[in-house]
Amino acid sequence: MEKILDIVDSIAHEKGLKSEDVREALKAAFINTAKKVIGERFDYEATLNDEKKTIDLFQKLEVVADNDPRLGLEDDKRLITVSEARKDGEIVDVGDELLNEISLEVFGRTASMTLHNEVEFHIQKLVEDVVYAKYKNKVGKIVAGTVTRIDDYGNTYLEIREIKALLPRKNRIKGESFDVGNTINAIVKSVQINKKEGINIELSRTTPKFLEELLRLEVPEIEDGNVIIEKCARIPGERAKIALFSNKENIDPVGAAVGVKGVRINAVSNELMNESIDVINYSPVPEIFISRAMAPAIVNNVVITDKHKAKVVIGSDQKAKAIGKSGINIRLASMLTGYEIELEESAGLKKEQPKEQNNGVSLLSSLFND
Q1: Domains in the chain, ordered, with CATH?
Q2: Cα(99)–Cα(314) distance, integer angstroms
Q3: pTM, whole model, 2 decimals?
Q4: Which terminus of the chain has fewer CB atoms gathered within 10 Å of its CB, N or C?
Q5: DSSP letter at 57?
Q6: Sign of CA dihedral 294, 326, 178, 164
Q7: What local confidence, expressed as pLDDT, does residue 365 receive?
Q8: Half-sphere exposure at residue 50, Cβ-oriented, CA atoms within 13 angstroms
Q9: In whole angstroms, how far apart are CA 256 and each of 5, 216, 227, 265, 368?
Q10: Residue 255 DSSP label
């Protein structure tokens, strides 16, 4: 147990820990070892001896009167009489606390093995706490991991640097598959820690947040805060709608997100199994926002009928576009705006529709401007 402090810096460097935290962990290991080897009913204290490069262990003793009635009982080893304490020149009085140095070495192999296990336990716990805090701060952020295993249920296990994570089958985009060795991106959905299993990280590729963070990576104007993502709705692998806003007049949020010839939005779509993404300008006015969210259908009128309900009036020629394949367009518009949308047909003039891009990504900046 000599020179134990010499290994502190090497442990800290190897595990990516702070030296101060490692020292505290070692002190806790010594105290726990003493409790297991000597007795839990006693109080202990461990101090760092930088000169000797050791950790000194002490048993706390209560100074009592020579005739204290507790003397001779089971717990009397926690006590020391005032006269006994003063033999070594200690200036103490009844009621004071005295530290009596003890050595674990006198307890032989049992103490050595117990200390080794305690040190491993406390260092591992320290590592887990650091990793847990690190990934807890990454909830809602994108991480990249390497696929290490795919079980019989389609759950994908990944290795992300120093930790393993799980991408459940339910959190995968429909139709996508992975092979061992693939590197994939996903959002950190949740981070849990427990005594039996350690740290559990759940990933997802199906949440709207994943789309938002992919856009943040592709669009500098979003990353620097000049373009704000106000709302986002997805049906993973099929279609999504995202509403953007900018306080700067010289920045077109939709144009910034789409990029030249659609390069930015196409990069995001490719990551999402060619998910079609409608990008619209956000408006705080519900009627305008709902109207834009119904694109590519052209809306004649929007009437808010209830706190969470709206009636959308369209021409009969716009009904198919308003509903979308299997109702996907109206569902996404409802998810994006937070309103239950009811369609009402109105006989009106047919309006010329703008052409959609061949890749299925709708460019709507020219449709609905304030």
Answers
A1: 4-130 (3.30.1480.10), 142-206 (2.40.50.140), 209-345 (3.30.300.20)
A2: 85
A3: 0.75
A4: C
A5: E
A6: positive
A7: 34
A8: 3
A9: 56, 11, 8, 9, 16
A10: H
